[in-house]
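Blinded run. Sample ID left blank on purpose so nobody reads anything into the name before looking at the predicted structure. Input follows.
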Amino acid sequence: MEATAGQYHREMTNFIYDEIELGAAMPSKSEPGKLSRLSPMQFQELATDVYDELNRRKHDAHDIPFLPVRDHYHPKRNQARQKLATLSRPKFVDLAHDVNEELKRRFPHKIEVSQGFGAASHGSSYESLNTTPTYNSVPNQHYQSNPVQYSQQAAPKPGFNQYQSGRSPPTSTGSAQGYHGYTHSKFSQHSGGAGSGSMSANTADDDALDSVDRAAHDLSYAIHSSQHGSSSRVPTPDQRAMRNSNNEVEKLKYEYEMRIAAMRKRVGQLESQLLDYRGDHLQDRANEQLENEERMNRMLSQKNERLENELRILREQLVAIKADMPALRQENDKLRQERARFLEREREMRSMLDEARAKVRKLKTTSVFALDHGDADLVPPPIFVNSGGVIRPSSVRAFQESVERLLSAVRSESVQDELPVAQAAIEGSCSELKADVHAYKVANANDPGAWPLTSEAKQTIPRAVDDLDGKLRNLVEAVNKHLNSMGVLPISLLEAAASHLATSVVDLVKLLKVCYDENKAAPRVASVSGPSLEMSTDNIIAGIQDLLQLVRASSPAPNALYSALQSVIGFVRETIDTCQVEFNMAESGVSANAQLNADMYDPDTARRILDGLEKGHLQLTDQLNDISEAQEAAGDNELDNEIVRELLSEMVFKQRLTSALVDVAKYTKSLIPWLE
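Blinded prediction complete.
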């Protein structure tokens, strides 16, 4: 800005004087410090824009209506530059006056040098108008003594186009806001508003070219002034002498051309330095990349060497292992042979163990009444074994085996699977004992005196049978509690219940005696009557209880559940067949060997019971078929497989089976009150 401050001051002073001569009002005195708040860059941009607008009004006011847009300026600055054209002449003169005063305040040394070197002739007259007290007067003698120098300092006149160069003093984008604030205030005072500008930075070569442009501008103005002069002034002898001094003008022109050539050479040098700097910078980057690559290459080489060492070690180990393979293979063959011998030995030991268990089981289940009593003199039979006994020996043996099975199951690892089966076996053996009593009673119903019992013993039989049923229920309850306790209850409680049941059986055997010969025992099914309806219903109730216990388990045992379901289905079928016979006898009025109470019999109720039992039998059969199909789908001969277990664990299967069992139990209980 210092390089152009003197030029801006001269041009603005001449412009203000010319405008006053053309009739414009005197510029108003500016407020002190009005532009002092602008930063140097902001003021430079404002002065540059006012200077450009001043030249446009002097030279191209008709051809160019406003300042053209410059691409390297911010759009807002271009807008503010264009709005300078909307200011009226007096208001623009005031703006130029304010900028001119601020130039003198900011650059007094430049202004003083410029005025000392040579001031415009208009400047003295403009100062004499007393527009501002800070302008200095330059005597005319100085102009007369050195007209050429004055032409060098004079402002450009018409014929010079500022915008042909396309350049202006350097600007800064960062100063746009302050400059915009001032211009906006100025335009609001003068024309109601103005745009804001934004500046952009130029490079060093742009500054150099700006100096060249200003030098060319001064030269052009000097030539133009020497040839044409000012149309608004009266020529003087000194001015005419100046126009004739062409030699001096040629010297000035040569001097400026030399200066332009020197500046262009300097620009070339700067460009060369810039290229050298860029080349050195690129070389540094290339060297740095090369060092990084070499460092990475060394790291990869070390890693490669380490991996090669590991590979060599692995290969050596592999060779050693391959050398040891024959010996290891022989040792493996020996171990296989030894394992085969051990397996064979294990099978032999298992076979011996099974035989020993069978002998022990046979020894435990052999009672005194099952011994061979052919020689009565040598081995007299016990007091409760005779030819007129009621209890079959097979029933007693079955009870003994079932008790042994129960005591073994409660100590086994799979107690959840084996204990319900042992319980069912005990219930079945007790049913056989009661069946023997009932069969003997039916067989000798017509001849009560055939019973080899006293009247007191005959009266004790019902109480003994009831006691047997009570102890059996206690045992079943103990088994259920033991299963649900998850091993918390002691085994002794279950053994005590089994002991009490065995005591009841012993009392019954002592009372009724055991038949010496199985063939001489009373048949369990009479020739006239069918199977015992009471026993069938008892078997159904007991079987349903066992089956429900198995179903409620989280993972039911397939074998136990399948066997229990088969038993319940058989009992239901037997009950249905017996009920049909008994119902027909009741409807026909036959009372001989009838098991139903004729007074309580109702045909409609009987038909409903038969239909319900038939439906329940069909549903249970369907469930049994589902288990069989699951076993076939698994392709396994064993029932205990994954598919069957998954089926038994399904909630839908459990719900259907439980519903069928509940229906069967309901109709069975409806039948019990009709039994005599």
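Unblinding after everyone has recorded impressions. Residues 246-365 form the longest helix (120 residues).
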